[in-house]
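Run log // design_07
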């Protein structure tokens, strides 16, 4: 009977070990899932932050482009104004000169 008692005792120990391993495995699985969720949250936060920085840069560049476009547009209008002013001024001078020459 000692062998039977030893075998039963050994089986009980093995069963306790099996339950301990299953419990520890379940706990490790839960920890691993939580770690993965935390990692995914951190990755998502980093992506949002990066996306936000990109959006801010695009916004700044858009404002710069608008300002440059306005400045270049004003400069172009000024150049056109000078060009037409010179043309109108020279036309008036020619008209006045021809009126004077006809009057002489």
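design_07 sequence
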């Amino acid at each position: 009977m000692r062998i039977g008692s030893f075998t039963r005792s050994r089986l009980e120990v093995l069963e306790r070990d099996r339950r301990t391993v299953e419990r520890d495995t379940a706990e490790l699985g839960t920890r691993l899932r939580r770690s993965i969720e935390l990692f995914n949250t951190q990755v998502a936060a980093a992506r949002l932050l990066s996306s936000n920085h990109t959006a801010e840069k695009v916004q700044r560049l858009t404002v710069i482009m608008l300002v440059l476009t306005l400045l270049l547009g004003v400069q172009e209008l000024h150049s056109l104004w000078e060009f037409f002013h010179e043309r109108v001024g020279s036309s008036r001078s020619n008209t006045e000169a021809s009126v004077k020459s006809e009057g002489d």
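The two ends are 152 Å apart (CA to CA).
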